[in-house]
Amino acid sequence: MNKQTLLGMAGLCVTAAVALTACGGGTGTGAHRAGAAVSAAPSPARPFEGLSPAQIAERSRVVMTNLKSFRAKGTVTTDGKNMTVDMVVAGKGNCLGTFGFHGGKGQIRWYGGDTYMKGDKTFWTEVGGGEKGVSPQQAAAVSELLAGRWLKTPAGSTDTDDEFPFCDTASIFAKDTSDSSLTRGADTSVDGRSAVTLTGKDGAATRTLVVAAEGQPYQVRITAEGGEEPQTLELSAFNKPVTLTPPSAGDVLDLDKLQQ
Prior knowledge:
Elements: H1 3-21, E1 38-40, H2 53-65, E2 70-78, E3 81-89, E4 95-101, E5 104-111, E6 114-119, H3 121-129, H4 136-146, E7 150-153, H5 159-163, H6 169-172, E8 183-184, E9 188-190, E10 193-202, E11 205-212, E12 219-225, E13 231-236, E14 252-254
Parallel strand pairs: 7-14
Antiparallel strand pairs: 1-9, 2-3, 2-13, 3-4, 4-5, 5-6, 6-7, 8-10, 9-10, 10-11, 11-12, 12-13
Helix pairs in contact: 3-4
């Protein structure tokens, strides 16, 4: 099996996870389709009184950069693929999660600078079938080789590794100077707690950020509607303890040790 074929497929998986973990920044994304109940809820005292939408977003962003861990769950579209995702950022350089599309299911972990990916046959076949330069025969061969095993790609093995500092809340929620002007919508509630919505345009996409108005101003919902990469994400489990370990060595196929 050609190592470059596996590298290309691994890169596509990493890109999918990046689309999820790169959810932070100024406006975040749009609004009312995810699992937690959202309803109009006028509050007795207007949350964030006296703050502009941009100031609310910035206050929330700073809080998110200081998180030790959080969970993001929902749907994302990347490279034309619609995926379900469920990721936990578990400290700088460490995160884990699951994602799937077209009936296939995969897992991913970042631990100690390395990336580990695992999926069933359907998952790897779908990934390979969408990668440029990968023939159906190659995709089938890869799915047979990798199904049920962890594929390890050392740091720097894919182009995406160099473009994104994985699993670091300070980087995920770094300030985005390209954010457009924000507007504040009606106050809402998420899972029974009051929240505010902030909406802005990003090219063809409308991005809306839902910020908790009780306790810490966490970003609790991020969605994007329109554009090429719509997404709906629920954020939760802020600063909850996370146990993350590398896969057992016997279940790992080390990409760095494969023959060219």
